[in-house]
Amino acid sequence: MEIKTAVIGGTGVYDPGILLEIRDEQVSTPYGDVELKIGKHQGRLVAFMNRHGEGHSIPPNMVNYRANIDALKRLGVKNILATAAVGSLNLLMQPGHLVFVDQFLDFTKFRQQTFFDGGSAGVVHTDMTDPYCPELRGILSQAAQNQGLTYHNGGVYVCTEGPRFETAAEIKMYRMLGGDLVGMTGVPEASLAREAEICYATIAMVTNFAAGISSDRLSHQEVVDTMIQNGENIRKLLLQAIAWTDDDRACACHSNS
Ligand code: HPA
Fold it and tell me: What is the pLDDT of residues 38-87, one digit of tens each?
């Protein structure tokens, strides 16, 4: 049986226990080996990957994004549902709300951004007009509605290099540029998935108002605590979305040229 859907669990979503018959799998890629789990949901095989590794040991700026996405591509995955903890710049997007982001602004600095480094990989300029799959976002919105969760279908995700949080002035600038949310892992994960012709959607959970929007100091513990408090909602949403995703549908994301 093929594996068409994958979950990338971010901060606070470490448990593949939502799946049945879980087994470990190691996938070798030219970028490094990747450990993941494979389990079943409603008769379908689903891959589960911890973005930050075992015990949250890999910071956002050190994640091997190319190996992770390439490993899923090698398994035959067509749909990725990624979770992400985010700070909010938008007063309407409040802690505890879900946002199915539709755009990103990339402020990362030192990451390997592409599979197309020239040479045998070729020179490819991938369309990035819609980095997040509109169909998967639609499914997530329906699932969230069905479960009575507060959600926003659309939002601009600002990706910073991290691992530090932002200054209040940086957040003010991102807000002026049209950002709604800020996080440290969305890019190049989303853009690599697009290069790999895999449908990709982010389930962003607002864990805090960003620096200077709230006068409180930020802590990673606060982010983890909010994710854990809302973990059950995210798990239920993931299961519903996996069940509602048609593995064999055609989608514009499956062609990057
Ligand atoms: N900034 C960056 N990343 C984050 C934040 C934040 O405020 N909250 C959760 N992830």
Answer: 999 998 999 999 998 877 789 999 999 999 999 999 999 999 999 999 99
Cis peptide before 163 (omega within 30 of 0): yes
Domains and CATH numbers, the chain: 3-254 (3.40.50.1580)
CA gap 104, 111 in Å, rounded: 16
- The dihedral through the CA atoms of 2, 189, 198, 86 has a sign that is positive
pLDDT tens digits, residue range 117-167? 888 878 889 999 999 999 999 999 999 999 999 999 999 999 999 999 999
Cα separation, 108 vs 105, in Å, equals 9
Ligand 1 atom showing the smallest separation from residue 208 Cα: 8
pLDDT of 214 above 90: no
The 10s digit of each residue's pLDDT in 91-104 is 999 999 999 999 99
Cα dihedral sign, 213-203-157-154: negative
Q: Which residues line ligand 1 (CB under 6 A)?
A: 85-87, 160, 165-166, 182-184, 207-208, 210, 218, 223
pTM over 0.90: yes
Beta-bridge partner residues of 231: none
CA-proximal residue: ligand 1, atom 9 (nearest): 86
Residue 183 Cα, ligand 1 centroid: separation in angstroms?
5
What's the CA gap between 35 and 79, in Å, rounded? 18
Atom index in ligand 1 nearest the CA of residue 184 equals 3
Residue 235 phi/psi, 5-degree rounding, is: -60, -45
Residue nearest (by alpha carbon) to ligand 1 atom 8: 87
